[in-house]
Fold:
Amino acid sequence: MIDQSETSDADLAFSRVLNFNSCSVSPEILEQSRKNNAHFLQAIDKTTAVAIAEMMGVHESTISRLKSSGTLSLVCLAMACAGMKVVPAEAIVYLQPEQYK
Structure:
């Protein structure tokens, strides 16, 4: 069981999404989902929720709810299920030869 006093709202939301979906999702996909979520949260913290909200034309509470409601975690899980991952825009990504299409 998670000690809620030592976890953030985003961590709890991610945990709820994983608990809800872990029966039907492979461990590899769950791990990629966790990484996606972590990278996304780091990017939000680096850029700041206020700046992101201003760029999107929404109130900063929208970004906070995105993190705490589990919506972001669910999107990260969907991305992992689709074979996608979150990387910084400036990252250089190399595909394996069999991934070229």
